[in-house]
Amino acid sequence: MIRKLILLATLCVVTVMATNVRPVTVNSPPGGEQSLQQILDTIYGCTGCVSAANDQSTAAYWQLMGGPPKQTAPIIEAVNAAAGNAIGIYTDPAAPILIFTAASYTGSAATIKFNVGGTLSIFDTTGGASCAVDGVNCGTFTGIDQHDFGFVLETNNAGGHTYYTDDSLNPGPDQARALAYREAGSDRWTLAFEDGTDFDYNDKVMSIESITAVPEPASVILFGTLLVLCASGLRRRRVS
């Protein structure tokens, strides 16, 4: 009986705590490529103040800072890009909206504005010739909740893949396809995506401002439900 109680309690703890597991190993890139640490140093303007190995956040979803409706956009900037990859934003994983297309390049920049009524507008702030040339998906869109969104990488390699900031949406066994970092004391985040098999996480790196992490909605609901079920199961077993 005691052995069964211990097993049930262990399963409850493991299940309710399921989330993005960090840290993961960041490998060295092939010769000639910048490492993720070098990219982070450039973004944050200091050497090693945000560690690629040790400062990985478990965040999978974010929201805009401030009360609704948020009119001031987070400034989203692509600071490193692999050819053929695009970055989007999603609330529904099946319906992401691209921010940067496969044509984006190092320095491509966009501003996202959440409007009254629930729409989202994307503007090109790169200063280049046009949205299309800069690889910015300009326009007004629907379907993104300003209190609950993640980011997605769409690749063109090996037939094309879609990878999310929420590990549970990615195919295994290597589900960690996006690493998130935040500069201490600020709202400046960096997302580093892996599009292949070398796991150096320098394939598409994006800096983002004016957002804050929120618990994964599904995990929060699951957490509460499983706590009740686990507590009930343990109580019944004690009584028996």
Helix-strand makeup class = alpha+beta
Strand order of the largest sheet: 7-6-5-2-12-11-10
How many strand elements? 13
As a whole number of angstroms, the C-alpha radius of gyration is 20 Å
Q: Tally the helices: what do you get?
A: 4
Low-confidence stretches: 3-18, 217-231, 233-240
Terminal-residue CA separation:
10 Å
From the spread of the alpha carbons, the general shape counts as: globular
Explain this structure.
This protein has 240 residues and is of the alpha+beta class. 21% of the residues lie in helices and 25% in strands. The strands form 3 sheets. It has a 7-stranded antiparallel beta sheet, covered by helices on one side. It has a 4-stranded antiparallel beta sheet with strand order 4-3-8-9, with no helix packed on it. A two-stranded antiparallel sheet has the order 1-13. β3 and β4 form a beta hairpin. The protein starts with a helix and ends with a helix. The model is unreliable at 3-18, 217-231 and 233-240 (pLDDT under 50).
List the helices and strands and how they pair.
Layout: H1 2-16, H2 36-44, E1 61-64, E2 75-81, E3 86-90, E4 97-100, E5 109-114, E6 120-124, H3 131-134, E7 139-141, E8 150-154, E9 162-164, E10 178-182, E11 189-193, E12 204-208, E13 211-214, H4 217-239
Helix pairs in contact: 1-4
Q: How would you summarize what this structure contains?
A:
With 240 residues, this protein is of the alpha+beta class. Helix content is 21%, strand content 25%.
List keywords for this structure.
four-stranded antiparallel sheet; seven-stranded antiparallel sheet; 4 helices; 240 residues; disordered C terminus; 25% strand; alpha+beta; disordered N terminus
